[in-house]
Amino acid sequence: MSAPSVCFVGLGYIGLPTAVVMANHGMQVIGFDINADNVEKINRGEVTILEPGLETELRKALDSGRFRATTTPVSADAYIIAVPTPFNDDHSVDMKFILSAAEAIAPVLDGDQLVVLESTSPPLTTRRMADYLLELRPDLFRDGSPGANENPGKTLYFAHCPERILPGKAMEELRSNDRIIGGASPEATRRASEIYASFCHGELLATDDRTAEMAKLTENSFRDVNIAFANELSRIAASLDIDVWELIDLANHHPRVNILQPGPGVGGHCIAVDPWFIVASAPTEAQLIRTAREVNNAKPQWVLGKILDAIEHIDNPTIALLGLAFKADIDDLRESPAVEISKAVATAVSHGSIAVVEPNINKLPPQLASFDHVALVELSAIPAHTDVLVLLVDHEQFRATTAKQLAPNAVVIDTRGVWR
Ligand code: SAJ
């Protein structure tokens, strides 16, 4: 029997790496995306995101003939939906991209197919997606429904299989991480397991769709709460004139203590977002998870306060801000606390000059582009007379130097503890 064919919906941070890895493990994969420029680039072997190893794997997948990108969805044995899931003002999920994905594939469905939602979503989202798809295609049936039993060839199988890869290590973690396979029915779980087993060497953990949705949110909320603890400690330690990095290092020598690292705040489209889905789903119960979000969200403002304190008596300060990405060695600026802090500094310090260094991008993001006194510069071009040097992201290039080398007389605000 030949391997099932798979059509990805969404070739972003998750869809593209997963699609090419699947193709390189023998699956026949089509990647559908609405962004025609990206589709063209991908088909030329050019990556649209910075992810170590992705370009090589993309070229291999294209050369094998088992992968191509398209702007037109096609019929396949399985669909994997990997589109963004932003939240509304009340932190409930904004389904618009999931619903458009359903609209895109509805006309090409024939039945006897699996539809997997990979996008991180609150409990019941897979079910809502299935309801919508079946409204669009009333001639098809959900597995387990009376209509499906009477029309086996017209059945759709639904599952939630959340992605868990760490940006920056995606190509490795896609293959090695354990995977949660949350089928809306046992047959959906079986079909989804077959697909993920083609490239995933980790354990495939079978459950239902709702538990799978919650498990993903739980993992990221656990991390958010732990980072909030570290961020709160950093503020407490600063107020007591204690080095927080040494403090955490010492505490972590205890066999049952493992505190994460403080930083300028929590960014990215996962940890800064997903806990809110739990809060919105269970607002009364989710006390600690909500507070952790608030603690982490408040950290950029605290860093801004430190920067403003440092320039209080300087007329026309020169400030260097190192890093804009949401974490080290990636180019992803989504929900980045470094961008938020840089914008706040640019707004508050209109009388100075601000050099921003972000080695992984080549132009300032929209949030900073309109400020005349803000320039994107190379690390080597930081003015030697810089008054305040702020390290916002622990990129490799910054770790390889010292504050003294960069700006000998500057006040240093190292939000990541790199130059201790
Ligand atoms: N951060 C800290 N201190 C730390 C660790 C992280 O301040 O000790 C900050 C980072 O600088 C960044 C943010 O937290 O701003 C998030 O970074 P991250 O490396 O913790 O996580 P992500 O968002 O890159 O990836 C997470 C991962 N989830 C977990 O580790 C539980 C990843 O496995 C998920 O697949 C991903 O979210 C996702 O897509 O949900």
Automatic annotation (TrEMBL):
Task: Return the InterPro entries for the record.
Answer: 6-PGluconate_DH-like_C_sf, NAD(P)-bd_dom_sf, UDP-Glc/GDP-Man, UDP-Glc/GDP-Man_DH_C, UDP-Glc/GDP-Man_DH_C_sf, UDP-Glc/GDP-Man_DH_dimer, UDP-Glc/GDP-Man_DH_N, UDP_ManNAc/GlcNAc_DH
Enzyme group, top EC level? oxidoreductase
What are its E.C. numbers?
1.1.1.136
The yes or no answer to whether the keyword Transferase is present is no
Pfam families tied to this protein: UDPG_MGDP_dh, UDPG_MGDP_dh_C, UDPG_MGDP_dh_N
**What residue ranges carry the coiled-coil annotation?**
none
* Annotated keywords: NAD, Oxidoreductase
Q: Where is the UDP-glucose/GDP-mannose dehydrogenase C-terminal domain?
A: 320-420
GO MF, any single term: UDP-N-acetylglucosamine 6-dehydrogenase activity
Swiss-Prot/TrEMBL GO biological process terms: polysaccharide biosynthetic process
Which family would the database say this protein is a member of? Belongs to the UDP-glucose/GDP-mannose dehydrogenase family.
What this protein is called in its record is UDP-N-acetyl-D-glucosamine 6-dehydrogenase
Gene source species: Corynebacterium choanae
